[in-house]
């Protein structure tokens, strides 16, 4: 959502001009038409390819952060291998950034800049994981006089120069300033640091012409939901009612309602969003706040919502969801569409796209989670069981049961 900010601002005017002058027959083809030509997996693989290409920016961003914080030097001084707490202390980074540095290092290990050795029997983000230098990270060291001959300039200078387009970008500057903060400042994400304190939600609301965030999310819904119904429509079977939380103008709910006319579909969103909702549709709209309460229904639908919020906020949202649904034996459940990092561990492009997207979402204080992280949130919110269905490319469907 954030890596393409500058690009989106550049093309937004071009997009509006093109849509105005092109013949309707030349405009983008809907997913239903594409599904007649391609399989769901071919379309999801195509999306993966495009996301992977777009998110390449965050390979550079991760490397720029590591160079700015001199991570390679810290590991070198610690003997060439160190845990994250050791690196944080040696590099003089605030301990509040330990979890976020892990996310940066995850990108750099997937990319081969560092290697990581996990303690036996421990999960991937354990603080005892040991990060080691590779030949690539060895070239980033600044304080090793033996790495260059007398009078020879160090190799990291050329890397710094190639990273200038990244480090000079708003997002690049925001990330570096954020990691150098001495303590956490609630609500002040790298995106806000880059844009004079303006959050992504502020920017979407007040500057939609140059930052069409809501249009982009609606576009994603229009692409993904027909695939959801084709490949995993059974998750909606047997429901009489469904609440789409933070469902915007009802794109997802309308598609579900059209496919399952017997399901009463409701969208819950903020009053200023619901005020713009279309009339005369097969969807009901309720103005409210998911942090306060959620309308009663057989099931609650959360499409790409929870990754925007931290652990405590996710627990609060899910507790409200739990209060809105009946017990499991009466059909109550939560249907989540979100990433489960590492859901396809044998596919390197798949994993790399997920961890790069995690850096993107970190810019707005969000987080992409692996199964263990999801599990902790689910159980803390009072749920007893869940099922992950990794069928949507880099995203999964999660059924969560009370």
From TrEMBL:
Is DNA-binding among this UniProt entry's keywords? no
Protein name according to UniProt:
Uncharacterized protein
Family to which this protein belongs: Belongs to the class I-like SAM-binding methyltransferase superfamily. Cation-independent O-methyltransferase family.
The entry lists its GO molecular-function terms as:
acetylserotonin O-methyltransferase activity
* Subunit and interaction comment: Homodimer.
Q: Which UniProt keywords apply?
A: Methyltransferase, S-adenosyl-L-methionine, Transferase
Active site location: 307 (proton acceptor)
What is one GO biological process annotated to this record? methylation
Chain ranges of the O-methyltransferase dimerisation domain: 51-142
Q: Which organism is it from?
A: Urochloa decumbens
Q: Which InterPro entries match?
A: COMT-like, COMT_C, COMT_dimerisation, SAM-dependent_MTases_sf, WH-like_DNA-bd_sf, WH_DNA-bd_sf
SUPFAM superfamilies under this entry? Answer: S-adenosyl-L-methionine-dependent methyltransferases, Winged helix' DNA-binding domain
Q: Which domain of life is it from?
A: Eukaryota
Q: Does the keyword Methyltransferase apply?
A: yes
């Amino acid at each position: 959502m954030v890596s393409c900010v500058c690009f989106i601002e550049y093309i937004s005017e071009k997009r509006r001009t093109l849509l105005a002058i092109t013949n309707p027959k030349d405009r983008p083809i809907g997913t239903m038409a594409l599904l007649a030509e391609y399989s769901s997996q071919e379309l999801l693989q195509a999306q993966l390819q495009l996301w992977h290409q777009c998110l390449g920016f965050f390979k550079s961003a991760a490397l720029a952060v590591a160079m700015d914080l001199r991570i390679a030097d810290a590991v070198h001084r610690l003997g060439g291998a160190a845990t994250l707490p050791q690196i944080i202390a040696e590099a003089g980074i605030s301990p509040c950034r330990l979890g976020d540095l892990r996310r940066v290092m995850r990108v750099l290990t997937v990319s081969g800049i560092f290697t990581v050795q996990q303690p036996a029997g421990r999960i991937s983000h354990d603080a005892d994981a040991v990060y080691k230098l590779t030949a690539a990270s060895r070239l980033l060291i600044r304080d090793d006089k033996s790495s260059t001959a007398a009078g020879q300039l160090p190799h990291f200078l050329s890397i710094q120069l190639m990273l200038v387009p990244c480090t000079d970008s708003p997002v690049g500057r925001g990330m570096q300033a954020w990691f150098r903060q001495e303590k956490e400042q609630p609500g002040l994400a790298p995106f806000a640091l880059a844009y004079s304190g303006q959050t992504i939600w502020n920017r979407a609301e007040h500057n939609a012409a140059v930052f069409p965030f809501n249009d982009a999310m609606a576009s994603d819904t229009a692409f993904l939901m027909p695939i959801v119904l084709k490949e995993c429509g059974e998750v909606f079977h047997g429901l009489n009612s469904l609440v789409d939380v933070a469902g915007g103008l009802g794109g997802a709910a309308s598609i579900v309602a059209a496919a399952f006319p017997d399901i009463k579909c409701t969208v819950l969103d903020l009053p200023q969003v619901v005020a713009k909702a279309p009339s005369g549709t097969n969807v009901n709209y309720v103005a409210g706040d998911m942090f306060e309460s959620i309308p009663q229904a057989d099931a609650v639908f959360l499409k790409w919502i929870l990754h925007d919020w931290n652990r405590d906020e996710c627990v609060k949202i899910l507790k409200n969801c739990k209060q809105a649904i009946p017990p499991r034996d009466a059909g109550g459940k939560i249907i989540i569409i979100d990433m489960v990092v590492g859901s396809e561990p044998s596919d390197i492009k798949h994993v790399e796209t997920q961890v790069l997207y995690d850096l993107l979402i970190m810019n707005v204080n969000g987080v992409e989670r692996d199964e263990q992280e999801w599990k902790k949130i689910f159980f803390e919110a009072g749920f007893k069981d869940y099922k992950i269905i990794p069928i949507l490319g880099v995203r999964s469907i999660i059924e969560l049961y009370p």
